[in-house]
Amino acid sequence: MKAKNSLNPALVVESALRIVDEQGLEALTVRKVADEFGVTPMALYWHFSNKEALLDAVGDLVVSTVREPDPKLPLEDYLREAMGALVEAMRSHPGATPLLLTRMLTNQVGRDITEATLDKLMSAGCDAQKAASIAHYALMISMSLVSGQPGADVTVKPAEREEAVAAKLAILQSLPDDRYPRLRAAAPSFVDCADAAGYYGDAIDIFVNGVMVDLRALARS
Amino acid sequence: MKAKNSLNPALVVESALRIVDEQGLEALTVRKVADEFGVTPMALYWHFSNKEALLDAVGDLVVSTVREPDPKLPLEDYLREAMGALVEAMRSHPGATPLLLTRMLTNQVGRDITEATLDKLMSAGCDAQKAASIAHYALMISMSLVSGQPGADVTVKPAEREEAVAAKLAILQSLPDDRYPRLRAAAPSFVDCADAAGYYGDAIDIFVNGVMVDLRALARS
DNA sequence: ACCTGAACACCGTTCAAGT
DNA sequence: ACCTGAACACCGTTCAAGT
């Protein structure tokens, strides 16, 4: 009935990523992917040892779209570029963001970017531990910016976002103005991200500036 | 057979948090909590409308342990104290960390800390949007530091951590030394956190210093 | 008011069997 | 080599029923 070799692993991964994009990471199910190919859930287990392996492959697919910054850039610029490139790739697939954590140390592209980042930091005087910390901070911050972008909650399905945003705003606006005046004023910004470019740019600036302050202090001692 | 009123909601939440601490967030199951009280899963639905409500309550329990910094502290110190207090509370319950995101805007304690933080920032010249961004960054960074602390992966059950760490390290150490010298040197730090206090302190320093640079630039314009 | 019992629509995964 | 079918041990949740 069913043709053999109908299941191209690369297509399966693409399909899984599409589901993550459209319905969120939690909605990704082995059975759903199988349905997309008109196949039994167990068919996937021939190509992927388990669901985790499939998720890793989805993560690899996203990491492979990360633009690699020029390794010849000076540290400060390289850091900015690397974080920007990560954010850009993840914003195209916000639901897949958590999958990138492990990939930066196991995937080809991820490892190359990590190695270059470490090299810049250690050339600037960091020891291995400090360099690892800073590289790790940069990744975690990039990830959490995307995962936590106001109005783009990863745990909420794309379809239900507008209502969720409106509901949150209504709750905050109903707070007593004498006790929470600042929170009420800032409520729209907490609930939805009016200026996404600014949201990411400011955070990267703050982090990179902080790192540079840290490194200058290191150089003085 | 079973005594009535045997289910104290506060005790249920504590029990749920204990399960999260011992087995991780993903292992928390309505059925498991019910078993702890020798009760049918459905018994919990009388006290919590669904699992999400139970999780929110667990989040509230953790937020309630966050030490509230002195609101009279100057901005820079307040930021440090607030992030430190958040990190401290979350480190006691790493598995529950993701639950804090929503709680900082809905819970009493969370709202008070958020309001104080916003007030400091806006008094220092930020508009509402910038203040919201920075407060949000501070929370996201604190959360991601704990969630992503090397060697304390939240997605790995506490019991299986040692092996997981050793396995990761072995993989990184097997990389070609000519291509990934920095990564190999930094591998132990990526895989396990030798100096937790330094890991958190450095990140908070970097962020707070970055914020101060940003605010000084703002004041000049 | 508070809890049980049975059932439903899901999961990921095993294992043996088909082609 | 590649996929199916049936089954297992789980999920969260509904709904009616008990006390």
TrEMBL record, chains A, B:
Entry-linked PROSITE patterns: HTH_TETR_2
GO MF entries: DNA-binding transcription factor activity; transcription cis-regulatory region binding
Pfam families per record: TetR_N (PF00440)
Domain of life: Bacteria
UniProt KW keywords: DNA-binding, Transcription, Transcription regulation
SUPFAM superfamilies named among the record's database cross-references: Homeodomain-like, Tetracyclin repressor-like, C-terminal domain
Keyword set includes DNA-binding: yes
KW DNA-binding (keyword) present: yes
Descriptive protein name: Uncharacterized protein
Record lineage: Bacteria, Bacillati, Actinomycetota, Actinomycetes, Propionibacteriales
